[in-house]
Specification:
Low-confidence stretches: none
Order of helices and strands: EHEEEHEHEEE
Distance between the termini: 27 Å
Shape: globular
Radius of gyration: 15 Å
Strand content: 35-45%
Strand order of the largest sheet: 1-4-3-2
Number of strands: 8
């Protein structure tokens, strides 16, 4: 068994797609209209285009807003993305205007940082020494 798809709830799929592709560097995998303005919209890592997909899921369900608000208020990331070098990625993303809520922090063999994805979520990046 392996993870094939996971999701993040987003307020605006078009805005999320721009952020996740143009800023973070993911590639669009699927973009299927679902009726109305919603789409089955996924991105993947360019390093593993056939790997795990991230669904940019509309946040219409009434449980989403209180859930995300509580996570953000407590500083809890919704997802964790692996990177080779947190400090280098932190600098690259800051140069692209990404707002971090936690600067790189070493915790034993792991270094993490947390940013706002502009779509209602905190996302953590992590690397191991």
């Amino acid at each position: 068994m392996k993870i094939h798809l996971t999701s993040v709830f987003v307020d605006d799929q078009a805005k999320a797609l721009r952020f996740y592709t143009d800023v973070l560097g993911f590639v669009k995998k699927h973009d299927v209209p679902l009726g109305g303005t919603d789409r089955w919209l996924t991105v993947a890592s360019p390093e593993e285009p056939e790997g795990t997909e991230l669904l940019l899921e509309p946040s219409h369900h009434p449980a989403v807003k209180p859930y995300r608000d509580a996570l953000v208020a407590d500083g809890i990331p919704l997802a964790v993305f692996a990177v080779d070098d947190v400090r280098a990625e932190y600098e690259r993303l800051r140069e692209r205007g990404v707002r971090f809520t936690q600067e790189p922090l070493e915790m034993g063999p792991v270094t993490t940082a947390v940013f706002d994805d502009t779509c209602g979520n905190l996302i953590q990046i992590a690397s191991q020494a």
